[in-house]
Specification:
Elements lengths: L7 E6 L4 H10 L3 E5 L7 H14 L3 E4 L5 H9 L4 E4 L5 H11 L22 H10 L1 E6 L2 H5 L1 H5 L7 E3 L1 H8 L6 H17 L3 E5 L2 H7 L5 E6 H26 L1
Parallel strand pairs: 1-2, 1-8, 2-3, 3-4, 4-5, 5-6, 6-7, 7-8
GO cellular component, one term: cytoplasm
Organism: Prauserella flavalba
GO molecular function, one term: metal ion binding
């Protein structure tokens, strides 16, 4: 992963429209993550969203819906800069997903350079090299994953570690503000530092992102759907407040 010398801020893409990509790229996010896990996005739509991101010059990763090698290879062929893979609980899981992103003999990814990642056949060498350059990022979302974090991070080809705080809280039965939950996060942070791996997470607000910036290399803030909904609610609330005030003044 490319270091900016500061925490990188990104957001999730859940809506099936390239307009979301263009608007959020223009807003100044450092990177985007197309979310297949918590959205109805299919591979074709993801392909189009990745094309829009490339046109905007913003790096885009894909959070795949599962560890299926065919899904991982297809989104990489479509030009994803990397993949976030949910529910990686063991080093064996990590080796499986890394293998899915690499070409033989290092991995199991099918080789077909006449795709976007290979400039439609015009950059075969670049396509071949991409198997070593893409970012494979396991999401740690269970106590089992936290217990195995050092083994997961030590797998050759793991580019960073990512904590899914909501899933981790549900899986452990802990609240995100508890001391026990904070201890789990500290374990991951210590492992990432020892392994010299970037560490990422996701939050809902800019304030929360600022709080985590000193201890994380990349943070995802909100998503396109929530940003649209929040802006709309605030606009309607403001309009009604002004209308009510104007009516009272008459």
């Amino acid at each position: 992963m490319v270091s900016l010398g500061r925490t990188a801020f990104g957001t999730w893409i859940k809506l099936p429209t390239i307009d979301s990509v263009e608007l959020l790229a223009q807003a100044g996010f450092d990177f985007l993550v197309v979310d297949m896990e918590h959205s109805p996005l299919d591979v074709l739509t993801v392909h189009q969203l990745l094309g829009a991101a490339r046109g905007c010059g913003v790096p885009a990763l894909v959070r795949v819906s599962d560890r299926t090698p065919s899904t991982i290879s297809r989104v990489l062929d479509s030009g994803a800069s990397g993949v976030l893979v949910p529910h990686v609980d063991t080093a064996a899981d990590a080796r499986t997903v890394v293998s899915a992103g690499r070409f033989p003999p290092q991995g199991t990814r099918g080789y077909g350079p006449t795709v976007r990642a290979g400039a439609w056949g015009a950059d075969v060498a670049g396509y071949r090299a991409s198997g070593e350059e893409i970012a494979v990022i396991p999401q740690l979302e269970s106590r089992e994953a936290i217990d195995a974090v050092r083994e997961i991070g030590a797998v050759d080809g793991v580019a960073a570690l990512f904590v899914g705080p909501a899933d981790l809280a549900v899986a452990t039965g802990l609240t995100t503000g508890s001391a026990a939950f904070a201890a789990l996060l500290d374990d991951v942070a210590s492992a990432a530092k020892a392994l010299e791996l970037p560490l990422g997470t996701a939050v809902g607000t800019a304030a929360a992102a600022r709080e985590l910036a000193d201890h994380h290399d990349f943070v995802l803030i909100a998503n396109d759907a929530s940003l649209l909904g929040q802006a709309a609610r605030e606009l309607v609330t403001d309009a009604h407040r002004d209308t009510t005030q104007n009516g009272a003044d008459r």
